[in-house]
Amino acid sequence: MQGLKRRGVVVVGLLAAVLLASAQNAFAGGPTDKSSTDTETDTGLDGDDLYAKATAISYDTSKNGSGSSVGSVTVSGSDWTPPACWYAPQWTAEQFAKETEAGYKEISGDANQPAHARSASYEFRQMYKDGEYKNYNLDKQDEGMWWGAVENPNAPILQRTACNSKLPFWVEDGDTPDVENAITPEILAGLAYEQIKVPGTEVTLSPAGITKVNLPTWAWLEKGEFQPVSVTASLNTPGLNIQATTTATPVALKLEPGTGDATTFPGSGECRINDDESIGEPYAKGKADETPPCGITYLRSSGDGTYKLRATITWDITWTGTGGAGGDLPDGTFGNDQEVTVQEVQSVNR
Fold this sequence. Notes:
single chain; 350 residues; alpha+beta; eight-stranded mixed β-sheet; five-stranded antiparallel β-sheet; 20 strands
């Protein structure tokens, strides 16, 4: 099917494979979601693809993490992943009719297309024109939308094609289709999770940069260095206006010394966040003989090199959505490495 550029053509052509060869990995849902960080609702051309921007999921990232050190959190302690695919409104009746007719016309008029592909495109067209549906439901233009499969481009290929076995279907405005993976606030929350960005983690150390063998190194993060971040995902189409906000809140700092020859404080290496939202405690004069609430004691010199101290923040992830929905999502983690030089000494005076 080389040279077919119109989205409608591709839909019908690939549906031929679905109808005749039962190919489960064919794209059966039409235009994929055009996720963006804006809230545009006009309809227009994006390259050669006609799509309705109003049906795209939009993301409000104004309360997301920012700066050069930000990164995406990694799901912790769970095999949960953001949704790989879902069903959502894709076309008005007029858009669906226009794209299907254009696809059928191009395929049926192409002598290079195999007979089974032309036959399948005809069957697909008839299903919506004069079969299960009548004339693409154009007489119901203002009463509903055509729904189809949407793939998450960030998901593994075998997972994101799981929704492709169902052909486009009509849903009246205000109705919730009884279809597995139909778009919901919870699905939006999972997609917002995927957009979360959190700041990098560089703890303050004392001694800073160069420490000594058997000398407790204090580690801390000041109050205000880490604040909750959030992303809101929204879908606003005729008859369906839903959203979900996913929030990441810092709850703990984990220290990994970069060598087995070290002791962490506490022993787990996990320093909980304090009531004032700081982590650990700054070193102050006179505390040389105290055990730091958050820190490390290196037991061996780093020689001519350094140890890579990894500081990782654990983020508690929650969501709220349309209709009072909400709940918890798996914790996320994000961290950075920082170089620590450890020197051997016989005695230390502080």
